[in-house]
Amino acid sequence: MEGDGEVASNGGPEQAGTSDPAAGIAPGRVRIDQYGLDLGPWLHLAEERSRLARPSFAHISVAPQGATLGAEVSGVDLGAELPDEVIAEIRRALLDYKVLVFRDQPITPAQHVGFARRFGDLEIHPFITGNAEHPELVRFEKGVDTGGFENGWHHDVTWREVPSMGAILHAIQVPATGGDTLFCDMGAAYDGLDGDTKEHIAGLFAIHDFMLAFAHQVPDGKQEEFRARYPEARHPVVCTHPETGRKLIFVNCYFTSHIDGMDTDEGVELIKHLAGQAKVVEYQFRVRWAPDTVVFWDNRSVQHYAASDYYPDVRIMERASIVGTRPA
């Protein structure tokens, strides 16, 4: 009858394959060449995901959230003078989970700075306004007159010779909907690259320049002065985490201007390809903010993206950034 499917010899509908289109295809991924689209499980995440599923801490409670990054931490008051052993466990959790979320933490600016200083010296950002009493706290105050333009994947301040080790962000006022922050595990992103790409980028260096994102904030006639103060920084395209030893993609489209010694167009395409790995959903963890949520992320391990989908509502955050070490 017209419209009926093909009939197999046993009288049932003929099947083209198994119920799972990826069954029997190693390593479990299928490519649609027409669109350059790869489908299927990212099998290289399994080992890290399994390791992180079994947290073991004596002084804090850790609940894993994402596959290879993200955990909610409870049983700790960030406004208190925390014992050294608690700080040590928070540091260990940060190295493991890369992004830590603390809920219901009504900390003052002074307490925010005090907690952040337990992990190192703090930066003062030259292009973003700080808290009036605590210049170490960058204040992001968005609303009708000031929109958020942090909605691109980036590590913070890679234009510095010594970028941030980590950042601690406190939600002061958030919209009822929208304004989430997404994080991407750049170690998982590196591990997911094919062997030829890994070989190609080994030993390459990229140039990072604050002017890509902040040129519009430099006063007229002050370009040379700011360039002298913040010269271009040269960092490896693939960095090794100084504490975990893990290899990480360390380029982004906010601050990376070009690949040192490479043809400009070729370098731009390579940066776009590598930075684009942050778009893989399986490498991501998303934070839904509430007032007095505090998030601590390892700026070496992850890139982040602040969704700018809440205009004209108000979103006010304050961030303390901890000085790191020179990428290597």
Key terms for this structure?
328 residues; single chain; alpha+beta
Could you characterize the architecture of this molecule?
The protein is α+β, with helices and mostly antiparallel strands. Helix content is 20%, strand content 24%. It contains eight helices and 17 strands. It has helices at 46-52, 84-97, 109-117, 186-191, 195-201, 211-214, 223-229, 264-275; strands at residues 30-32, 37-39, 61-64, 71-74, 99-102, 137-142, 164-173, 181-185, 205-208, 233-236, 238-240, 247-249, 256-259, 284-287, 294-298, 302-306, 315-323. The strands form five sheets. The protein has a seven-stranded mixed beta sheet, with helices on one face. A three-stranded antiparallel beta sheet has the order 14-8-16. It has a three-stranded antiparallel beta sheet with strand order 10-9-13. Helix 2 links the parallel strand 4 (71-74) and strand 5 (99-102). The longest helix has 14 residues, at 84-97. It is globular, with a radius of gyration of 23 Å. Mean pLDDT is 90; it is low at 1-9.
